[in-house]
Amino acid sequence: METPLLPRESGQFVAERSRDVFVEEEGVQKVAEMLYTLRHSDCLTASGWKMANPLAPALNWVFVVDTMNFSFWPENESQQCEVTYKGTMYTGYMTLCAAITRAMEEGIPITDPKYFSQMSVEELGQVLRSDNETPMPMLQERHKVLTEGGRVLLEHGGSFRTFISQAGNDARKMVELIVEKIPSYRDEAVYEGKRISLYKRAQILVADFWGVMEARGEGDIINMDWLTMFADYRVPQALVYLGALRYSDTLMQILKNGELLCSGDRREVEIRGCSIWSVELIQDRLCKLLQERDGETCNITSAIIDFYLWLYAKQHHKEMAHIPIHHTRCIYY
């Protein structure tokens, strides 16, 4: 079986052949200029990661959350799964973070691989319980990937730290290790006859590992610039809103009708692949601006741009409501 193209090469491959999603030169420039004005602000540093992950306490917590970090969109916008933690009500991805942190406070050893590798679906259902009638989607799938991930950690020293240390301090090797050892992280597809990879969760797991280590003053991980953006359903919406991506009228109509796209569907792969490539071009343009205008080397990576755009999408969700997000129920994002 052929080795899939890496995420960056996959993004370029898709963008050059895409029929319904287009990377817009002008929008790319506009977003690069916008980020340039923020070049000295905290939102384009490791602190930006902290703003996106205010509840992240430890490495095993990060592993548990990222292993189940997929598919939070509600069937019906007015029926969101909600979890309240310390007086704050969370929705979306943050419901998962809040639920795991709540479980820890309730004395459930949810971050111990010995426990979560063999917990029952019912136990996980209790941990992920919602405060309203809408449960968190895909409980069976979350249970399957979490217990599988736990078993892999137990085979490799019993913690995420010992598992990931096999890759040294190299972000690329970390992604490769995760994808090789843990099946649920193999986010791959076939596009125009070519095997490609998007590796959203594997890359975000490495970026989150870096964020925690950075917060501890131990973030000397090399090859962070190898990571691309994390192709999900929120960031593409922000990229369309900002003009860096454009959907064909046909695709826009399909999404507005709320049609589901299967994982691996050509249009779904185009949305994700073109998102990756547009952020690569934005990052490249931003580095040129820093070099030309300030004579500075750029250390703002695609991953940092992703953290910023993800938060931007959350903060501007009302203004962006007219741009539909694509809906794909799968374990990859």
UniProtKB/TrEMBL annotation:
Keywords assigned by UniProt, alphabetized: Hydrolase
One Pfam family in the UniProt entry: Q_salvage
Catalytic reactions of this protein: queuosine 5'-phosphate + H2O = queuine + D-ribose 5-phosphate
InterPro entries on file: Q_salvage (IPR019438)
Domain of life: Eukaryota
GO biological process, any: tRNA modification
GO MF: hydrolase activity
Known EC number: 3.2.2.-
Major enzyme class: hydrolase
Membership in a protein family: Belongs to the QNG1 protein family.
Protein's job: Catalyzes the hydrolysis of queuosine 5'-phosphate, releasing the nucleobase queuine (q). Is required for salvage of queuine from exogenous queuosine (Q) that is imported and then converted to queuosine 5'-phosphate intracellularly.
Protein name (record): Queuosine 5'-phosphate N-glycosylase/hydrolase
